[in-house]
Amino acid sequence: MKVLITEKKHLHEDSIELLKKKGFELDFSEPDLSGVKLEDYDVLLIRTYTKVDKGVLNRAKKLKAVIRAGVGLDNIDVEECKKRDIRIYHSPGSNANAVASHTVALIFAVLRKIAKADKHVREGKWDREEFLSHELDDKVIGIVGFGAIGKLVAKKLSGFDVDFLAYDPYLTKEQIEDAEEAKRRVKKLDDLHELIRKSDIITIHVPLMPETRYIIGEKEFKIMKPHAILINTSRGGVVDEKALIEYLKKDKLYGAGLDVFEEEPPKNRELLELHNVVLTPHTAAMTEQAHRNMSVQAVESFLKDFKA
Ligand code: NAD
Prior knowledge:
308 residues, alpha/beta, Rossmann fold, 2 domains, seven-stranded parallel beta sheet, 12 helices, globular
């Protein structure tokens, strides 16, 4: 069987070794598949930037499986794969710990103005009064999407004196409120807008799907507390970036921490020049541990079903 690996530099070498050892024939390409003879391949091994859409599937006539080293499947036309009996393998939960820790880092970076302070000191300044900030204790943290990552964010922050609200219509009250990670300090809300109105920090952990696109948009920004913080480590498309920029520009929010963007890398100067936003280049899952887990877990689940 022939496997096309499209994002080699973002995959852990152990996952490629696993396929080699099992006798699969491997080829490599860039994520842009436009010039590739896709009809030669039985399997695609991809990360984040390869789009497996209907056009790609039409050309990949022999394709039997897509291995996506990572969690979100928004770069794959899942419905179309189902119709064509193409199996999809990914690695749910493999990077949850890394992303949850990064979310916590972003919360503190925004709350305590860490990035701005770093720049300030490097510029030879020492205006400490500019950095009067807030503590996390006594805040209400609203978690949108209480899956692997959302739960771990609650777990990691539960040492602080904070309250948690969670909105996840696919989980029962018990699944949320009795979750081991949350130590029973989370209250499930059935109304996203209630969570938004009541939270000081809102952190998004939903997959990008038609129903979650712009789940945080103009209407939601309008009802946020004036000092609210928005953290997005899920996907750029879940937040209306234009509306976010408007609210940040007018200081109607305390700040935002973003690891993901509508366009990556982000080119919008308005966003890049804002003083109250902390940006990271989609690196929430980029730890040694998660990097290996993501690649190896997805390949191992593929190997349970396929032989060379
Ligand atoms: P998960 O599947 O464990 O959890 C997602 C949760 O969202 C589920 O509990 C689901 O019920 C809930 N959900 C679905 N639709 C919803 C809606 N409309 N409103 C509220 N909740 C909804 O996934 P996870 O491992 O926690 O990851 C969440 C997302 O984070 C992924 O889909 C991916 O897009 C993103 N992610 C980003 C990075 C990064 O590098 N920044 C890395 C990993 C994952």
